[in-house]
Amino acid sequence: MPVLSRRRFIEGAAALPVALSMPTAFAADDSRRNFTVAVADLPATLEPARELSNVGTRVTYSIFDTLIRRDFLGAADGGGSELKPHLATKWERVSPQELVVTLRRGVKFHNGDELTSDDVAYTFREGRMWGEKAQIPAGKAYFGILASVEPVDRYTVRFKTKVADVLLEQRLASWCAWIVNKRAYEAMGFEAYSRKPVATGPYRVVSHSAADATVLEAFDDYFMGKPTAKRVTFKRVPELAARVAGLVAGDYDLITNIPPDQMSVVGGYKDIDVRSVVLANVHVLAYNEQDKVLSDKRIRQALNYAIDRPKLVEALWQGTAQVPASHNFPEYGQMFVEGRKLAFDPVKAKALLKEAGYKGEPIVYRTQANYYTNALEAGQILIEQWKAVGINASLQVVENSTQMRGANTQIFNWSNSTRLPDPLGSIWVAWGPAGEIQVSKFWTSAQAFNKAGTALEAETDPVKRKALFTEMLDIWEDEAPATILYQPSEAYAIKKSIAWRPTTFYFMDLRPDNLGFAKA
Question: What digits encode the pLDDT tens for the residues 25-81?
Fold first, then answer.
């Protein structure tokens, strides 16, 4: 089944609005306008491999660049997976375990340094994102496959992997792969760099306050051309009503996290457009196996069978979200496993509870109110669906992710993105041994899953790879460390006079080729 048949570009933005200017030169007085984005939340840090949340990558995508660029906007739905040159002009597979990358010459960092192979080797060095003492443990899920990264000359870098890795090029275009400036990183130190990083992107950091705003200014030496906005501000505005009011009043140019039931209302203003995509992301429920009640997988399975996902999509998303075929997505191409389905079977749920000897012990589901669109509303429906099969469930709303995963947690919500168009970039990154769930010991019955995933990392034969992935899916569904709710849509409201397209990731691309303003 073609990818585009499973993804819909819901509203507008299939093409940039007409009669807009994408300026390449500016007057001496710099008449470029400012651009303000109101977001529901902001990241705690701007260190690109440390901050891998949805709210973080939205901001860091305009500060940093990758060696290879994934052409998201090359597809009508904003989910293209073709790779094209970016900080690297070319790359060559010398062997199944070796990739030689040639850098673009003359690329400048925000501090004026020229990008060289030393910066690239420093970015991917052992001890930062891979190795036993990795400074950023989350990076191991993406780059634990590396054996070495070495400069060949000033503009050439050699990557070697521990095993044959079919995804190294995609890894270099994805999460964790943003290039840092070696001199600035070493001079500033980890914490200071995390607050005000020096990179090569179209905008550089002026200030960052997670509680208020992240302010960026145009970096006019950007190698793709001068940015089209003079200054970009990501303003934290948790309340939807306040974001909408600010957009209508002209205080903001773009706002995020528009629920489906508000899309037509917000889009009813004559100067506002709503642009929405189905995300390469799923909302999930994660279970804590250390909990006495949830240590029995039959109870976890019962929780999963009790969920009527189509009803959730109908009630909360007005048909704009999708229920995927398990942790298994069409972006995988030949690796997509046909015939999977997330089952709704309340009779089986009741039978599993009885078999497990469940006696009505309390089960609490924790969620934040505003982090995910419709999270609170989904939680309220889930509680009722669980109660319908005899589960003594209740909802607890918390303020942050630390509380959600804190002491005595049983169930909490999360999301998983298809960060690479392959199972290794989705289920393995999220649920493998380097993922936060296993690291946090929420899932401890993962031995068989880890064995199959480790074999998948080293396998190059497509048929064998698909068989290993199918095995991983079977194990994940049977052990039930979690379940998928749905693949959500993400809607943005923006002034109609502004040319900008969203992608199927939370990346907010504000580069000169995707942000333009109507001529005055």
Answer: 444 457 899 999 999 999 999 998 877 677 889 999 999 999 999 999 999 989 888
How far is residue 315's CA from residue 234's CA, in Å, rounded to a whole number? 31
Distance CA 352, CA 240 (A): 40
Owning domain of residue 82: 65-187
CA pair distance 297, 118, nearest whole angstrom: 49
Same structural domain, 388 and 463: yes
Q: What is the residue type of 36?
A: T
**Residues whose CB falls within 8 Å of the CB of residue 407, separated by 6 or more in sequence, listed in order:** none
Query: Given its phi and psi angles, is residue 12 left (phi above 0), alpha (psi -120 to 50 degrees) or beta?
Result: left
CB atoms within 10 A of CB 408: 9
Residue 450: both structure tokens together: 């880890």
For 437-462, letters b (16+ CB in 10 Å) and e give bbeeebbeebeebbebbebbbbbeee
| Cα distances (angstroms) measured from residue 475 to each of 297, 404, 421, 453 | 12, 26, 21, 11
Q: Is 355 found in the same domain as 220?
A: no
Q: Is 135:124 a contact under the CB 8 Å cutoff?
A: no
Neighbours of 227 (CB within 10 A): 27
384: amino acid identity, one letter: E
| CATH number reported for the structural domain that contains residue 115 in this entry | 3.90.76.10
Domain count, the chain: 3
- Specify whether 309 is located in the same domain as 443: yes
SS3 82: coil
> 428 and 461 share a domain?
yes
DSSP line for 13-62: -SSPPSSEE--S---TT--PPEEEEEES---S---TTT--SHHHHHHHTT
Token look-up 């496993």 returns 337
Tens of pLDDT, residues 298-355: 999 999 999 999 999 999 998 889 999 999 998 898 999 999 999 999 999 999 999 9
Residue carrying structure tokens 């200017």: 21
